Amino acid sequence: PLIEDLALGRHVAGSPALMRRLEQAVDGGVEAVYIEQPWLLPVVEALRARLSSGFRFIYGSANIEHELKASIFEQYQVRDGQAVIDAIKALEIRAAATADLVAAVTEADARVLRHWTQAPVVLAPNGVKPWSSDAVTRDSWRQRLGCEPFALYAASGHPPNVRGLCESFGESLAGLAPDQHIVLVGGVSEQFLQHPWFRRWEDLNQRRVQALGLLPQADLDALRELAHVFILPTTTGGGSHLKTAEALYTGKPGVATPHGMRGFEHLIDLPGVQVVAPDPEFGRTVGRALRDDAVVHDTPDDRA
Length: 304
Known about the structure:
Largest sheet: 6 strands, parallel
Number of strands: 10
Oligomer: single chain
């Protein structure tokens, strides 16, 4: 469990049928192969061995993966996982060392990668594409959620997302008033509701959460436009977060942990951005932001 990413590259590289399909896809020559994260390095190596024509290899590191996996193993109390951590680190080092170009999303990650390679390491921060929502969808969600301001957290069920949500608020969501709530979108919803942290004070927490699960993109875009506050409760992992870029793009109030601003530290002083260490004050800060009288527009006026 928890190592499907590592297993995937080995599986594909070891499958003659899958490798034949890849060869057919690049038949006629390819100038460069790019992988995001190290997991498919065995596939790149297998392609190099099978193709008569060479190609440049670009490694896009979105994280220092062995450190993140170690924190996930700790979270789920995985025993005897060190061999896996060592294998992931070796894979990352090999990817960086054999690449013709390496891309990192934060300067902290770039410093690590420069120790592993003689290739150029470029800083390519995360960003987001513009989005928009239609009035009909927004009106539908207004009717469903009511007129009270809400905080939004949209994230996958990736273990660090769940862990950060639990750790950032202290012992419970009591920092929010009973009539305030957080809207959860994505796989994090179900994982959070099942977590022992949530269940310890389940009645209190349940009153302050609306968990919507997986939604079509149009609905997520509408909720982004309607949200009063964005929360960025990240406590582990490297790289930077698309959730942070999305929140900053809206120009709306945001409450983030210091870890949640990785890669965007130069934007900490933006109006409305509050950085709070993980403890009960994080929840109280979200509560104060929800009580703020600032007008929430359906669409951002200033995307800068």
